[in-house]
């Protein structure tokens, strides 16, 4: 299993890989990113909010969506940024292509090995 870190643009991964989708948001204005659509071959595993290192009021934070690739295919991911009680303020989309291959794993010493071993 690999961890793929990306912004909202198309990626190609293997079955079992974890995709970290990073998007900026400004929570000081009540704007948050939400999933609008996640394709059937992907599983939304977790959502986290990472605060900014900027100590000043109004600094943007980062929302991270963790998606796990469950089966081969081309799967859409659609996000919407909106206030909790308002209409959409922004949108982001990407496509995740999941291959049927086996991704590399690394052991504790950093050596690469195949899952088939």
Keywords:
mainly beta; 61% strand; 117 residues; four-stranded mixed sheet
How would you describe this structure to a colleague?
The radius of gyration is 16 Å and the shape is elongated. It is mostly beta strands. Helix content is about 0%, strand content about 60%. The C terminus is likely disordered. Strands 1-3-6-5 form a 4-stranded mixed sheet, with no helix packed on it. Strands 2-8-7-4 form a 4-stranded mixed sheet, with no helix packed on it.
Q: What order do the helices and strands follow?
A: EEEEEEEEEE
How would you describe the oligomerization state of the chains in this entry?
single chain
Task: Give me the side-by-side strand order of the main sheet.
Answer: 1-3-6-5
Q: What is the structural class?
A: mainly beta
Distance from first to last alpha carbon: 14 Å
Q: What percent strand?
A: over 45%
- List how many beta strands DSSP finds: 10
Radius of gyration from CA coordinates? 16 Å
Largest sheet: 4 strands, mixed
Overall shape: it is elongated
Number of helices: 0
User: Unreliable stretches, pLDDT < 50, 5 or more residues?
Assistant: 112-117
Instruction: Report the helical percentage.
Output: under 10%
Q: Kindly state the mean pLDDT as a whole number?
A: 81
């Amino acid at each position: 299993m690999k961890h793929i870190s990306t912004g909202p643009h198309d990626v190609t991964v293997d079955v079992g890989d974890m995709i970290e989708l990073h998007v900026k948001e400004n929570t000081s204005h009540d704007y948050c990113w939400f999933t609008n659509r996640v394709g059937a071959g992907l599983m939304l595993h977790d959502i986290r909010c990472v605060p900014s290192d900027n100590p000043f009021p109004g600094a943007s934070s980062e929302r991270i969506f963790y998606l796990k690739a469950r089966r081969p295919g081309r799967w859409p991911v659609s996000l919407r940024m909106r206030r909790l009680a308002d209409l959409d303020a922004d949108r982001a989309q990407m496509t995740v292509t999941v291959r049927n291959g086996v991704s590399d794993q690394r052991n504790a010493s950093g050596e690469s090995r195949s899952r088939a071993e």
